[in-house]
Design a protein that fits this description.
There is one protein chain. The chain contains 9 helices and 11 strands. By secondary structure, the chain is an alpha/beta fold. The chain has 2 domains: 96 residues, Ribosomal protein L30/S12 (60s Ribosomal Protein L30, Chain: A), CATH 3.30.1330; 153 residues, SPOUT methyltransferase, trefoil knot domain (Alpha/beta knot). Strands 8-7-6-10-9-11 form a 6-stranded parallel sheet, covered by helices on one side. The protein has a 5-stranded mixed sheet with strand order 1-4-3-5-2. Helix 7 links the parallel strand 7 and strand 8. Helix 6 packs parallel to helix 9. The longest helix is centred in the last third of the chain and has 15 residues.
């Protein structure tokens, strides 16, 4: 690592804080990662980290994990506060390069793949990506109007799983049109077939819809199997559905119970 003896300038502060907005992330090609867990996972992944702003405590414990070509700025807690989006900064802020999108080819995809339709909440998106990483789902396809996965709140909620999941943004209708007829497309809907009674598959696509409106009507014709999570008897009235992230976890758990991840 390259240790800088120069303090953070006002322009750097402005630049780092600007990366909280999608348009500036796209303009500069970098996103912000925070906390030791998230930053260390990204440092040890395919992602390229450009700059690290860290306290002495972080550098003493984790300095060897920082790549040689990465520029490091030792900072105080007060300086960290100026560039952090967290209410309570945690030792380190890193600027990480946004990788080039690697699209999935439906004609040659032999894996279980998650498809996210219009997921808007950063916390939900981050938790879903973290869940996908946990269950060994390596590819996630998002609709173009889903929340940006490099949003600081999403990055934080993934707890480092950005390093374990390949994410692409595509027009979902056009994408699903190209899925071979023999490949199953499962859709998580309220009135679908009980997932525990459905014939699932070790490969295919699992479509999860918007938090409020579910799967877009234009995508429904491309589902080959609509599945739902049964609600137990005696559930309190007024609870109509599960949170999108929780539903994804339940669904992936059942798929992996039947078909454990390999590789």
């Amino acid at each position: 690592m390259i240790i800088s003896s120069i303090m953070i300038s006002k322009n750097q502060e402005k630049y780092i804080r600007s990366l909280q907005l999608t348009k500036y992330r796209k303009l500069h090609g970098f996103f912000v990662a925070e906390t030791p867990k998230v930053v260390l996972d990204l440092l040890q992944s395919r992602f390229k980290t450009g700059q690290v702003f860290a306290t002495e405590a972080f550098l003493q414990k984790n300095g060897r994990s920082i790549p040689e070509n990465c520029k490091v700025y030792p900072v105080s807690e007060k300086e960290l506060q100026k560039i952090s989006h967290l209410k309570v900064p945690q030792e380190v802020v890193a600027l990480v390069q946004i990788p080039e999108q690697k699209d999935i080819d439906p004609l040659h995809n032999e894996e279980l793949t998650l498809v996210l339709d219009d997921i808007r909440d950063p916390g939900n998106m981050g938790t879903i990506l973290r869940t996908a990483g946990w269950f060994g789902v390596r590819n996630v396809v998002c609709s173009v109007n889903s929340v940006d996965v490099y949003n600081p709140k999403v990055v934080q909620a993934t707890m480092g799983s950005l390093a374990r999941v390949n994410i692409s943004y595509v027009p979902l209708k056009e994408f699903l049109k190209t899925v071979p007829a023999a490949t199953p497309v499962f859709g998580c809907v309220l009135k679908g077939k009980n997932i525990y009674e459905s014939e699932l598959s070790p490969k295919g696509y699992i479509v999860v819809g918007n938090e409020a409106h579910g799967i877009s009507p234009e995508l429904l014709p491309y589902l080959t199997c609509s599945i739902s999570i049964p609600s137990p008897a005696g559930i309190e009235k007024g609870v109509e559905s599960l949170n999108a992230a929780i539903a994804t976890a339940v669904v992936l758990s059942e798929f992996r119970r039947l078909f454990p991840a390999s590789g």
